[in-house]
Amino acid sequence: MKFRCERDVLVEALGNAGRAAAGRGTSLPVLSGVRVQLTGDQLRLTGTDLELTISVEVTVSGNGDGVVILPGRLASDIVRALPAGSVEVEVSEDEARISAARSEFSLRILPADEFPRLTEATGEPVTLASAELAAALNQVVRAASSDDARPILTGVLLAAEAGGLRLVATDSYRLAIRDLPGTTVLAEGQHVLVPSRALQELARLLTGDETLSVRLGEREASFEIGGTRLTTVLIEGEFPPYERLIPQAQPNRLTVGREVLLEAVRRVKLLAREATPVRLAMSNDGLELVAVTQDVGQAHESLDAKFEGTELTVAFNPEYLVQGIEVAPGDEVTIETVDALKPALLRVPEHPEFLYLLMPVRVS
Q1: DSSP H or E run through 97
Q2: What are the strands of the beta sheet with 2-6, ordered from one edge?
Q3: Which of 219, 243, 267 is the last residue of a domain?
Q4: Which of 54, 113, 165, 263 could form a disulfide with 183 if both were Cys (CB 3.0 to 4.6 A apart)?
Q5: How is the beta sheet containing 312-316 ordered, strand by strand?
């Protein structure tokens, strides 16, 4: 088995496949490797940790079909360090030789027969425009939990809703919702729970105006972009009834420039140390941001804003607040509140398809 490939092409393919490979702590050492299969001039590289699989196909100059398992991270680091131009990989019985110009490396290979047989989602493929989905993922995925003790909340709900697709994520402190009207992936009333890690990787792969092919099976979901396929095992269980969290009426509404608010919160949160919240004092005079950390200092900043309702002060986790403002589309945002203890809604007037709910922090 032998092939030639441009260094940058091979670096990208190894890097993408390797992102799904398991870390060193895995009980199956072969999962830390990348499976490299040559068929004619088509090279397919696959990494998996059994939950997430990324497979990349590239065209090379091949000689002799075969399969080999390369140590994923080391092979990627070696190829990246080689001089620009053509890279040659030649595999013998127990080692792979990687060379370019005057550089040459020999790597011990992992046993190919120990690499697991992988399943693919079997549903009918649905084609989507990737740019809109990439924007939706960017707005929603970060709100999912990273706590594996609550696996349901580490997923993103994809649900058929109101003639389109709805994406929902929550970590119980904030909730993000994005609707994609007219996007039909699921049957009416159907929903699936996709691991947020898989969707983070998918968002990273969606870089342009390419089309995306989606297959949803009973246990797996597959996403295919060009020569790259990402497959993930779906999360089993019921997503919490998030609709109950959304207040039906918010008597207080603050309207403010998105970029102005974002920059102000970033500045003020420099003084919000050790889980100190940022307080938003809303009144007819506008908005005042305050952060006070005992024995460190305090920050104040006033902003012009339009306020309708009863004067009040609400405190938020500054990082969660920043992340919500960052992903909001449009030039202005509204913050709608009931009181200082009930969930607040961050909306964009001209983009009703987006909603970010944030639980306030109780302060004395």
Answers
A1: strand 95-100
A2: 61-63, 2-6, 86-91, 95-100, 103-108
A3: 243
A4: 165
A5: 297-303, 286-293, 278-283, 312-316
Is-contact 107 36, C-beta < 8 A? no
The mean per-residue pLDDT over the stretch 200-218 comes to: 87
CA neighbor of 78 nearest in space, from 44, 41, 104, 116: 104
Tokens of 16: 């993408």
Residue 351: CATH number of its domain: 3.10.150.10
| End residue of a domain, out of 226, 243, 260 | 243
Reported pTM: 0.91
φ, ψ for residue 263, nearest 5 deg:
-65, -40
Which residue bears the tokens 């972009």? 225
What does the pLDDT average to over 36-63? 96
CA distances from 325 to 12, 243, 314, 316, 330 (A): 32, 21, 16, 13, 10
Produce one character per residue of 122-135: b if its CB has 16 or more CB atoms within 10 Å, e if not: ebeeeebebeebbb
pLDDT at 220 over 90: yes
What is the largest distance, in Å, between two alpha-carbon atoms of the chain? 77
What confidence score (pLDDT) does residue 256 get? 97
Domain span at residue 299? Answer: 246-358
Average pLDDT over residues 267-292: 92
- Percentage of residues of the chain with pLDDT beyond 70: 99
Per the domain annotation, does 146 fall within a domain? yes
Query: Residue 192 pairs with which residues in a beta bridge?
Result: 158
Tell me the pLDDT tens digit for each residue of 132-165.
889 999 999 999 999 989 999 999 999 988 788 9
